[in-house]
């Protein structure tokens, strides 16, 4: 019997990048149920391929072998679409390199044959500059193969911080100055200034003096592990996945000098992010309008020193002003009472900006779409 085209390792690595709709596409090819959460769909699909691969490994050919092989080709096709969409934004670069390494290993294990396997060009510069698969790389005082380093990084293992030296801070400055914190996200690892994110790691030695905020002179929040704003957002929403965080750069609120009377709380200072402009391309606007059930444009807020890291948390008395072509709206950012604080087991919801994408009379559909957003709020303490 000839070799099977069902390679469980490659399929598992690719399916890990699939969204819910893409999982349904492959399940439909196999006439399997498409109901349930994303985790359920992924498990159902991988369980099917696991059974087929195990039978093939023992020399058996399943009754619907052609259907299984066809579904494996659908997995390849869907993955190619994902990779093509990711390349312009440099998304999931490490995951794609990991999949390349897995495919190369499986080809080497099969005798180096590429027969019956689709190929794709690698157009990203980082991938083109990647060293040969078996080239060794110095790491943590020892030598590890490149594919093993990438695999451990994707698994989130400890000790792989030196792989990423990029400084991507809220202050938009790539200058390295202490104190620096590195994100513990499995596929992130960026560095940010402790002063900017108002956080510090718990001191390793007892009795060490805590770092102070340079503005308020209060101790910075101490944590066991630090996560950047993108990793916090990706974990904070159980219903939506973060698709493109670069639509608008994050911004911190600052005092405006004005005050507002808040009853028994007295006069509180007014803070604002200022007017933030985001420009959407024609392709982005078309995607958001055509598939509004799958993609949404949302504004959200994190409090840097929030004791609950992975949740959205709007400040008190928060309002958002939205400007777009022939559109103006000022709304409360949260449904809870404007003077009510968020409890430890509560979370706020993102603010949907989809209404600002409605077509405007006299505005060309070919031109970029510009939206302006401003957040104002009153907090007893600066955040």
Question: What does this protein look like?
Answer:
With 383 residues, the protein is of the alpha+beta class. The strands form five sheets. Strands 7, 8, 9, 11, 12 and 14 form a six-stranded antiparallel sheet that branches. α1 runs antiparallel to α5, α2 packs antiparallel against α4 and α5 crosses α7. The termini are far apart. 22% of the residues are buried. About 13% of the residues have low confidence.
What value does the average pLDDT take? 76
| Helix and strand run | HHHHHHEEHEEHEEHEEEHEEEEE
Spans of at least 5 consecutive residues whose pLDDT stays below 50 are: 113-162
Q: Report the structural category.
A: alpha+beta
Radius of gyration: 25 Å
* Shape field: globular
For the terminal residues, how far apart are their CA atoms? 66 Å
Q: Helix tally?
A: 10
Kindly report the oligomeric state of this protein.
Answer: single chain
Characterize the main sheet: 6 strands, antiparallel
Tell me the β content: 15-25%
Considering DSSP H and I runs of 4 or more, what fraction of the residues is helical? 25-40%
Give the tally of β-strands. Answer: 14
Write a concise keyword list for the protein shown above:
single chain, 383 residues, alpha+beta, two-stranded antiparallel ribbon, 29% helix
